[in-house]
Amino acid sequence: MKKQTLDPMGVSAFCESMAMMLHSSIQVDEAVGLLQQQSGKEKGGILERGLHVMKEQVDEGSGLYAAMEKSGIFPDYALNMVRTGEKSGHLEEILFRLGRYYAEQKTITEKLKNAVTYPAAMLVLIIVVLLAMLTMVLPAFKDVYTDLTGSIGASAYRYINWAYAFCCIALAVMVLIAGALLFGLYLWRNGKREAVEKVLNRIPICRSILENMGLFRFTSALTTFISAGEMQDEAVLNSLPMTDCKSVEEKLHRCVSRMEEGHSIAQAAYDEDLFEPVYGRMLLAGERSGSMESVLGRLTNLLEENATALVDRLVGIVDPLLSGVLMVTVGLSLLSVMLPLIGMMNSIG
Fold it and tell me: What pLDDT does residue 292 have?
């Protein structure tokens, strides 16, 4: 049975609440108990069940990490961060960072869903309109011409064939695109993400979105680990699995090799073109000035904004393209079937 975990906003809300209570000098066991009371309204919910387990664990003397792990409702990244926070004594700060991280993840995920939903709806609309053209509109015009002339003339027949051809070709293309998207979604959800990424990486804007998302997740995790007091090499190794992007992981592995030779993460990232040159110089400057953590935080925000801008640009390209396909196909088809009618009216006039 698949483990049920909290969604990003649920994790964000939990971490923010715990951080605020710890900041107010409330002990972990008391904080968990207060959260359990607040979640009592959601009987049978994931959080309510998880907090019940956590309360039992902390009452027995377990720490927050052990209680969260036992509950089984938190993602691995959150668990690793909390464990690091407990070891380093920066639990409160780590929880605040986790709250922001998962809130940002939710925002970007919703943005991506919205970016896919509207084009998908447009694609379905185009298929429905084209089917209506082929099964209702064009046959209706054909019947009109037959009733007017007793049989379809050669010119009218040719024009109607053109209309049918336009609609059939457009419908076939749209169905193929829809089928490819559904197949890609199936692969993505069934552990074949790498195969989908290989296809998406062939499209420049999609490759940029994937890489920016991967770098955003990496820098966010790296900032959290470094703020918790971990050494750079350990922080990079712990952050690497969070990228979820093959091309970024390959660059990071090369960065790790350079770090093993004695280079810092900033220098290794700059040499391996992990970030854009301007971002790489920012990281170098931050390292030299002793403000690495604040520069990483700024870089994380910039990467998030850049990923959002790229998604908006992709939507700005796809939406007009699909709308144009619909208008051109329907327009040419209607023009083709209207030309014989215009000719008949001119003859009558």
Answer: 82
Q: Domain check: are 158 and 52 in the same one? A: no
Query: Between the CA of residue 263 and those of 98, 254, 269, what are the distances in Å?
Result: 29, 12, 10
Whether 284 contacts 264, CB under 8 Å: no
Residue 296, helix vs strand vs coil:
helix
3-state secondary structure string across 189-231: HCCCHHHHHHHHCCCHHHHHHHHHHHHHHHHHHHHHHHHCCCC
Quote the CA–CA distance of 32 and 145 in Å, as a whole number: 77
pLDDT per position as a tens digit, 35-88: 888 765 555 578 888 888 888 888 888 888 888 888 888 888 888 888 878 887
Statement: residue 198 has pLDDT above 50: yes
86: in domain: no
Strand ranges in the chain using DSSP code E only, listed in sequence order? none
